[in-house]
């Protein structure tokens, strides 16, 4: 455990060294937040409630979604691809720790940094511009935190699975982008699925993606009843477990396919 | 005349070479076709779902939004084909990459702009054309000579504005000597201003994007003109103004590049 904590600490320290990156990320994210807020304000245009959600709830949804997006950046895909290309994956594998544990520790370190460097400033700026995005209730907030954590692991495992493809194909090219774009639409991070056509929506709600963004966010703004929350969280945990089993099986196969190049 | 001919032949050779080098990696090309199709079609689907739920966006109906979106993706694709190398200008300045160009008897900017003709940008044009023609059909635009030339003016203008902003941001590195890259920031700005109607933003933002940082001329005003959405105060068509704005911005950004070149120190090793 100590080793993983150390990796997380190193990650935090190295992220602190790049000031321009932080400032530009905050600026871009503020811009996005502002643009998305204007988008929803224009869409609502004073009409009260559309598809069961009011304007203020939608603004909260957007703000928290953008903040979550900064916490859910996954380095693992690029990390595996980079290590395979340079051959440093051999060194990673020699260490007496689980390499996926190390990758997870790195990503958790990145998240810790992003929380203070980006999430907190964004929350403050967003609150000044559009009012504080308060959760529906304290209980909702607590369940949101739990739901977000499970969503984090689902997202991480999906990224890890994609990253493992690098063991076979060496260079992944734009495939990571494809995943990003698909996730953006299907997870409800930009547009919640309740605005989608019904048949499509029902289908998407059974996929794992929706558990990463929309479920925690829906809980945050109090869209679901407790019964709904319970069933949706059960489905979320089910997906987390299934994906973990797939991940576990794939990791064994991937280790056998490692091709060490470079040196 | 001789000079023009010479420049054209050099440009043609450079373009051919970069196309050949990109074709060496066919799977990369296929991957990008997939990525860009997913990106733009998903983005457009999201807008459609919202407009279906709400009826309109900033006074724009779904049909006009489709046309606006298509125009935006097309000018984005063109700009990426022609100007992608400007994304790495800061790096070139700091690493001394311009030395090579300075040694040759030709304008540095000319060489730099034609050095990398990005075939992969064509992959943006495929979904772009799909959404564009879909939008055209939805707004029932008649392909008269006037309309086609307006669309072309708007596309050229929009492409030049995008390129100019990239060259401008990259040229700042001559002074700052930093590899700070503004591509992501500018990209986010382009997307937000050119794919959605400007009317969704507050008045002050509209003024900024019309006069100070005229990004609204990439698609918003010319599309408004082409669709005849409201009588403009100026007697010239909006698309022609857009072309003018693009040309002026491009010339200005080239000027800044030249000015910056005097401060170039070939700092690399």
Radius of gyration of chain B: 19 Å
Counting copies of identical and different chains, the oligomeric state is heterodimer
> Widest sheet of chain A: strand order?
1-2
Write the H/E string of chain A, N to C. Answer: HHEEHHHHHHHHH
Could you walk me through the main structural features you see in this protein, from its secondary elements to its overall organization?
The complex is a heterodimer of chains A (263) and B (269). Chain A has one domain (2-42, 53-256). In chain A, helix 2 (19-44) crosses helix 6 (99-130), helix 3 (55-71) runs antiparallel to helix 6 and helix 4 (76-86) runs parallel beside helix 7 (138-169). The mean pLDDT of chain A is 86. Chain A has eleven helices and two strands; from the N terminus they run H-H-E-E-H-H-H-H-H-H-H-H-H. By secondary structure, chain A is mainly α. Chain A has helices spanning 2-15, 19-44, 55-71, 76-86, 89-94, 99-130, 138-169, 175-186, 198-205, 214-220, 226-256, and strands at 49-50, 53-54. Chain A is 75% helix and 2% strand. With 269 residues, chain B is mainly alpha-helical. Chain B has one domain (2-261). In chain B, helix 2 (26-54) runs parallel beside helix 7, helix 3 (62-83) runs antiparallel to helix 7 (122-139) and helix 8 (145-171) packs parallel to helix 13 (238-261). The mean pLDDT of chain B is 85. The chains are: A mainly alpha (263), B mainly alpha (269).
């Amino acid at each position: 455990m100590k080793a993983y904590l150390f990796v997380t600490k190193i990650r935090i320290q190295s992220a602190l060294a790049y000031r321009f990156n932080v400032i530009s990320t905050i600026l871009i994210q503020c811009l996005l937040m502002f643009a998305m807020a204007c988008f929803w304000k224009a869409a609502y245009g004073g009409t009260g409630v559309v598809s069961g959600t009011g304007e203020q709830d939608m603004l909260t949804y957007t703000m928290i979604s953008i903040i979550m997006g900064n916490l859910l950046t996954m380095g693992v895909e690029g990390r595996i691809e980079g290590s395979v290309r340079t051959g440093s994956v051999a060194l990673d594998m020699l260490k007496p720790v689980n390499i996926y544990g190390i990758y997870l520790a790195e990503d958790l370190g990145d998240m810790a940094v992003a929380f203070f460097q980006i999430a907190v400033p964004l929350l403050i700026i967003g609150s000044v511009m559009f009012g504080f995005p308060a959760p529906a209730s304290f209980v909702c907030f607590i369940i949101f935190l739990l739901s977000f954590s499970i969503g984090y692991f689902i997202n991480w495992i999906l990224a890890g699975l994609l990253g493992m493809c690098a063991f076979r194909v060496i260079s992944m090219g734009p495939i990571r982008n494809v995943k990003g774009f698909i996730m953006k639409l299907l997870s409800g991070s930009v547009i919640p699925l309740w605005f989608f056509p019904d048949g499509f929506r029902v289908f998407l709600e059974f996929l794992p993606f929706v558990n990463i963004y929309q479920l925690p966010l829906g809980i945050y703004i109090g869209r679901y009843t407790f019964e709904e929350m319970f069933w949706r969280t059960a489905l979320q945990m089910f997906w987390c477990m299934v994906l973990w089993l797939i991940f576990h099986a794939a990791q064994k196969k991937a280790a056998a396919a490692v091709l060490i190049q470079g040196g | 005349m001789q000079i023009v001919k010479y420049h054209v032949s050099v440009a043609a050779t450079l373009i051919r070479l970069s196309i050949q080098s990109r074709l060496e990696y066919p799977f990369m090309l296929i991957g990008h076709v997939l990525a860009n199709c997913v990106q733009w079609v998903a983005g457009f689907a999201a807008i459609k779902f919202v407009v279906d739920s709400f009826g309109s966006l900033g006074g724009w109906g779904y049909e006009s939004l489709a046309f606006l979106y298509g125009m935006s993706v097309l000018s984005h694709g063109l700009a990426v084909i022609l100007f992608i190398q400007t994304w790495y200008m800061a790096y070139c300045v700091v690493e001394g990459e311009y030395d090579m160009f300075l040694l040759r008897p030709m304008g540095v900017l000319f060489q730099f702009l034609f050095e990398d003709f990005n075939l992969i940008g064509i992959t943006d044009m495929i979904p772009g054309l799909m959404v564009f023609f879909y939008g055209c059909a939805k707004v029932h635009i008649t392909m008269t000579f006037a309309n086609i030339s307006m669309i072309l003016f708007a596309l050229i203008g929009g492409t030049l504005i995008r390129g100019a902003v990239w060259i401008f941001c990259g040229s700042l590195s001559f002074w700052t000597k930093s590899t700070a890259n503004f591509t992501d920031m500018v990209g986010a700005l382009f997307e937000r201003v050119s794919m959605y109607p400007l009317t969704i933003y507050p008045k002050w933002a509209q003024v900024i994007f019309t006069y100070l940082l005229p990004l609204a001329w990439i698609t918003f005003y010319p599309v408004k003109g082409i669709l005849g959405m409201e009588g403009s105060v100026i007697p010239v068509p909006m698309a022609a103004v857009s072309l003018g704005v693009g040309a002026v911005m491009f010339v200005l950004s080239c000027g800044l590049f030249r000015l910056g070149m005097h401060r170039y120190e070939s700092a690399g090793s």
